[in-house]
Amino acid sequence: MLRIAVPNKGSLSEPASAMLHEAGYRQRKDRRELVLVDAENDVEFFFLRPRDIAVYVGSGKLDIGITGRDLLLDSGSPAEEILQLGFAGSTFRYATRPGTAKDVSEFGGMTIATSFSGLVTKHLADNGVDASVVHLDGAVETAIQLGVAQIIADVVETGTTLRNAGLEIIGEPILKSEAVVIRGTGAPDDDPKVRQFLRRMQGVLVARRYVMMDYDIRVDQVEKAVALTPGLESPTVSPLHHEGWVAVRSMVPAKDAQRIMDELYDLGARAILTTGIHACRL
Q1: Which CATH number fits domain 91-176: 3.40.50.300, 3.90.1210.10, 3.30.499.10, 3.40.190.10?
Q2: pTM
Q3: Other CB atoms closer than 10 Å to residue 232's CB: what's the count?
Q4: Residue 41: strand, helix, or coil
């Protein structure tokens, strides 16, 4: 069986399970369940702490896993990302009190508090900065107030929490993270079970981004219409019983669907329909 690590809690957990369910895999009904066998798909799921997943996958104990890019890089585990999943996006940045420093080049001799000590230590080394790193498990924004550190490094969404603590974001982002599928470094590229899993997940990603659009259009307007709906390769164009008209079917980005429908209508297209895509293979 393909052995897959899945986050058991946190912001990664529910979106990961939802995506796996859309990809046709069984998922647990009881959050206390730690192992789930999906015999029909020849897969065994292990629900683990997100921070531990890279370690298990990198050690070869599990074949692949879903975790955050930040957690993967912070772990230092011999694992690599093989697919971006498009959820749980975050930005990892430095923050401090106004006037302390402007960017990482000024951190020399200072102390940085963070929950991602591996990631920060590497970033400082890559920038040639000699600074101390203190590992904290959470609420790192209080480290400056309590005198533990002069700088913090943490996940930033809106920045409101930092501003409320009297801190400002400084320098360029350390990392932009999101949920990713990972495998051990050096694992074979041609594992058919892994390839099938990735195809399913990629199918979910495409199904979420696109809708199927159908419409009728006069023959003399087809070229203009298909320029608006080129599809992934080429749209399907079929003759209608009513002479001079054709039916067109094409995949279009969901975010653009309403605009495209308006433009098609202005071209004279009628019976314009959009339908969701539940699964696909490209």
Answers
A1: 3.40.190.10
A2: 0.87
A3: 12
A4: helix
Q: Are 211 and 273 in contact (CB under 8 A)?
A: no
Instruction: Tell me the per-residue pLDDT of 231-258, one tens digit each, with 9 for 90 and over.
Output: 988 999 999 998 999 999 999 999 999 9
State the Rg of the chain over Cα.
24
For 2-86+178-207, CATH gives 3.40.190.10
Residue 144: count of CB within 10 angstroms of its CB? 21
DSSP per position, the chain: -EEEEEE-SSTTHHHHHHHHHHTT----SSTT--EEEEGGGTEEEEEE-HHHHHHHHHTTSSSEEEEEHHHHHHHT-SEEEEEE-S-S-EEEEEEESTTS-SSGGG-TT-EEEES-HHHHHHHHHHTT---EEEE-SS-TTHHHHTTS-SEEEEEESSSHHHHHTT-EEEEEEEEEE-EEEEEETT--TT-HHHHHHHHHHHHHHHHHHEEEEEEEEEGGGHHHHHHH---SS--EEEE-SSTTEEEEEEEEEGGGHHHHHHHHHHHT-EEEEEEE------
Listed residue (94, 104, 73, 109) closest to 143, CA to CA:
94
108-155 pLDDT per residue, tens: 999 999 999 999 999 999 999 999 999 998 889 899 999 999 999 998
